[in-house]
Design goal:
By secondary structure, this protein is of the alpha+beta class. It has two helices and eight strands; from the N terminus they run H-E-E-E-E-E-E-E-H-E. The strands form two sheets. Strands 1, 3, 4, 5, 7 and 8 form a six-stranded mixed sheet that branches. The longest helix has 15 residues.
Length: 126
């Protein structure tokens, strides 16, 4: 994704997830195929193939690299295809109520601590 397109896409969705845009660290990531539609605000983890996919509760543990999807991404239903470029937040302050997990569990205090240790802080919606 070109830098200009990356900036435009991220800006279009940032207001829905970022509580504070200052000091946010956004990067382009390669999403693994086969996860269907990954929503804005999905917690992502880096898998064994170094691609990113939506996280379930069990993936939010110390030692697992995490990020937040900054745009909805269609990854298809068949795993094993080419990765899909997407924007993700690696550090910053996000609206906690807008974060999602694949198992639809609520983020626990322990999970929030793991995110915080990686520079992703949450704040209540205003």
């Amino acid at each position: 994704m070109s830098k200009d397109l990356f900036t435009q896409v991220t800006a279009a969705y940032a207001k829905d997830i970022l509580a504070d845009a200052q000091n946010a660290v956004l990067k382009s990531v390669v999403m693994a195929s086969g996860s269907g539609t990954v929503p804005l605000g999905a917690v992502l983890y880096k898998n064994a193939e170094s691609q990113w996919q939506p996280a379930a509760s069990a993936n939010i543990v110390a030692g697992t690299e995490l990020a937040i999807a900054m745009e909805p991404v269609e990854t298809g239903d068949a795993p094993g295809g080419d990765g899909i470029a997407a924007s993700a937040l690696f550090a910053g302050v996000v609206v906690g109520e807008n974060l999602t997990l694949t198992d639809e569990a609520a983020l626990t205090d322990a999970m929030l601590l793991v995110l915080r240790a990686q520079g992703i802080h949450t704040k209540a919606a205003m």
